[in-house]
Recover the amino acids of this structure.
């Protein structure tokens, strides 16, 4: 996420359909930016973006991570690459709303994990990386 130097009190927000969505970082207990993809105690929510698979403690941490790391201005690929999601072309602001509504609610994250455990997380083709 590339932000110009702004006072530490300012929080990036995006305006989506008249709604202000705050991209305030949730309070992390472990401040490691390069979290290994190991599940730590209390981390029950996983980012299911393509091959990310990072674990977080709360749905809001997953949303903040996905909105900035996968949906950031310089990295957003133009469509949602969440496991099992239809790859429609979306504007970035539309994607942020979609992410919050469809993938980062508590229920959606728990449902996605159940699918992932059973190896039926949608119809994504394996990436050729």
């Amino acid at each position: 996420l590339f932000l110009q130097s702004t006072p530490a009190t300012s929080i990036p927000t995006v305006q989506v359909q008249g709604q202000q969505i705050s991209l305030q970082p949730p309070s992390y207990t472990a401040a490691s930016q390069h979290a290994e993809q190991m599940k730590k105690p209390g981390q029950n929510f996983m980012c299911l973006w393509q091959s990310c698979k990072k674990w977080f403690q709360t749905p809001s941490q997953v949303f903040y991570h996905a909105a900035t790391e996968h949906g950031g201005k310089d990295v957003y690929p133009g469509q949602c690459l969440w496991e099992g999601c239809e790859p429609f072309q979306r504007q970035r602001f539309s994607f942020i709303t979609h992410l919050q509504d469809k993938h980062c609610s508590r229920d959606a994250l728990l449902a996605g994990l159940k699918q992932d455990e059973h190896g039926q997380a949608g119809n994504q083709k394996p990436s050729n990386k």
